[in-house]
Amino acid sequence: MLTTPVIRAIRRARPDAHLSYLVESQAAPVVAGNPHLNEVIVTPLARGAARLREDARVALRLRRSRFDAVIDFHGGPRSSLLALATGARDRVGYTIAGRGWMYTTRVPRPRGHRERHSVENQWDLARALLPDLGAPAPASDPVEMHEHAETRRRTDARCRALGVGPTHELIVVHVGAGNEFRRWPEASFAEVATALAAGNPNRRIILTTGSAQAPRAEEVRRRAIGLGMDAGAVAVACDLDLGELRGLVARARLFLGGDSGPAHVASTTATPMVVLFGPTTAAVWGPWRDGRAATETVDAGELPCRPCDQRVCEPGDFRCLRGIGADTVMAAAARAMEKGRASGVESV
After folding, report:
1. For 113, 141, 232, 284, which has the most beta carbons within 10 A of its beta carbon?
2. Inter-CA distances, 9 with 38, 68, 108, 293, Å
């Protein structure tokens, strides 16, 4: 997602270039239909022998395409090898121990925390190839993702299945997280969901997460109902693909969740957002979107152990995220929705 501003900038700098984008299948909806790309090459994330066969197939295809230049935005072992396999005259990537030799141009990526957004790091790679690229700015180059007619149809059907009609006010709360460092407590999510629905019988709260985190979403729903929330006002959706998630958020009055991939998906809409930051910071990972879209970021404030590398919690209690109170998040949600109403910016 955080490479999409650079895609637009490259197209603007080189309007006649043929731009191809190689992506694994799970993330393909992010760039499918991107108007700045000529081609999207999708490869599955296979394992074992199947992985070797697929990589050989893709490498041969890339080699035959005779690319002039390649930018490796990922920097992982697979992307490094495929960049090398293209045989492109110019291959740009980060300075990475053991793999830097695969690139013809290497861009330093200092270790440790820097108050610099990830999009700007991606920009460094592109600017190594195109020095005239200019400076990145979310107002002119926000993250973007496009909704297809088929995705729109599936999202509409999903809303009906979840009991969300055209007259309901929808709020999407993403409760999932891939690691313990980014998991705001279920009880806190339940408290906020209950408060958002209180006194608003027309609101519907959809709790989203990945399939592996489904029990967590169900626990949040159970706790919210236990706090007095109408069972019909809260539903769980744990099997959405990225396109459906984006479609759901675009139809919502608010997105609320932690610093995660879904938050960046939500950033491609004009929907008001509240994003919770624990071990990470908004300066590096905040929503990269047009400033007219209402965005609130919440954290526990300055802590001697924050930010961290998310390997070991030094205090042992994950205070950077669990120190954020439900009242603070509710206040941020109220501000975001009010800004959204005042701005007049519609979801897209």
Report:
1. 141
2. 14, 18, 21, 21
Instruction: Characterise 170 by phi-psi region: left (phi > 0), alpha (psi -120 to 50), beta (else).
Output: beta
pLDDT digits (tens, 9 = 90+) for 88-146: 999 999 999 899 999 999 999 877 667 889 999 999 999 999 999 989 999 999 999 99
Q: Please, are residues 320 and 180 in contact by the beta-carbon 8 Å criterion?
A: no
Q: The tokens of 39 are what?
A: 């081609």
Taking Cα atoms as reference points, which of 301, 309, 304, 269 lies closest to residue 282? Answer: 301
Answer yes or no: are the C-beta atoms of 226 and 191 closer than 8 Å.
Answer: no
Distances (CA, A) of 290 to 88, 122, 129, 294: 35, 18, 26, 9
Please choose, from the candidates 298, 242, 234, the residue with its C-alpha nearest in 3D space to the C-alpha of residue 269: 242
Q: Which tens digit of pLDDT belongs to each residue from 36-90?
A: 999 999 999 888 899 999 999 999 999 999 999 999 999 999 999 999 999 999 9
Distances (CA, A) of 153 to 148, 181, 265, 297, 344: 9, 36, 19, 32, 26
Rounded (10°) CA dihedral 206, 207, 208, 212: -150
pTM of the complete model: 0.93
Q: What is the C-alpha separation between 21 and 31, in angstroms, rounded?
A: 8
3-state helix, strand, coil in the chain (%, to 5): 45, 15, 40
Largest CA distance in the chain: 64
Would you give the distance in Å from CA 303 to the centre of its chain?
Answer: 25
Q: Which residues contact 284 (CB under 8 A, 6 or more apart)?
A: 113, 114, 115, 116, 117, 118, 307
The partner residues of 41 in beta bridges, in order of sequence, read 22
How far is Cα 269 from Cα 155, in angstroms, rounded to an integer?
15
